[in-house]
């Protein structure tokens, strides 16, 4: 099956860091951008960061200066370095890959990030 598999989530204290990874498995269609989204309990899924294949990035205001998105196009892999984590960063983080030649996108199943003392 074609999948995006997130890893690196866990429980961390406020001010700590985590590095999330999203790796493709199976045969993946061509993509033009990848990104991270998150969804906290009772809230809608929201953009965290995106990166295009030519390196352009976009961040939610709430994570600017703290999170960094990067990618390895050869591996169809995206990373999210999360520093200075806050309790409000607690959410399930989902990886996304936007197809370049067909409509739609591919979602991972998510990885839990919990920031708590």
Shape descriptor:
globular
User: Over all CA atoms, what is the radius of gyration?
Assistant: 14 Å
What is the CA-CA span between the terminal residues? Answer: 38 Å
- The proportion of strand residues reads over 45%
Low-confidence stretches: none
By secondary-structure content and strand pairing, the structural class works out as mainly beta
Strand elements, count: 11
Order of helices and strands: EEEEEEEEEEE
Average of per-residue pLDDT values: 93
The total count of helices amounts to 0
Helix content: under 10%
Main sheet?
7 strands, mixed
Question: Could you walk me through the main structural features you see in this protein, from its secondary elements to its overall organization?
Answer:
With 117 residues, the chain is an all-beta fold. It is 0% helix and 55% strand. A hairpin with a 4-residue loop joins strand 5 (46-52) and strand 6. The chain is globular. It starts with a strand and ends with a strand. The model has no long low-confidence stretch (mean pLDDT 93).
Topology (elements, then pairings):
Elements: E1 3-7, E2 10-12, E3 18-25, E4 31-39, E5 46-52, E6 57-59, E7 67-72, E8 77-82, E9 91-99, E10 105-107, E11 111-115
Salient structural properties:
55% strand, mainly beta
In short:
This protein is mainly beta. Helix content is 0%, strand content 55%.
């Amino acid at each position: 099956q074609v999948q995006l598999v997130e890893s690196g989530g866990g429980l961390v204290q406020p001010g700590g860091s985590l590095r999330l990874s999203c790796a493709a498995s199976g045969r993946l269609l061509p993509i033009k951008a990848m990104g991270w989204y998150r969804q906290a309990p009772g809230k809608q899924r929201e953009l965290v960061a995106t990166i295009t294949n030519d390196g352009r990035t976009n961040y939610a205001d709430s994570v600017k200066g703290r999170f960094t998105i990067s990618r390895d196009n050869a591996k169809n892999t995206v990373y999210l370095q999360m520093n200075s984590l806050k309790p409000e960063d607690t959410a399930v983080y989902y990886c996304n890959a936007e197809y370049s030649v067909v409509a739609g996108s591919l979602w991972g199943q998510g990885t839990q990030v919990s920031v708590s003392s």
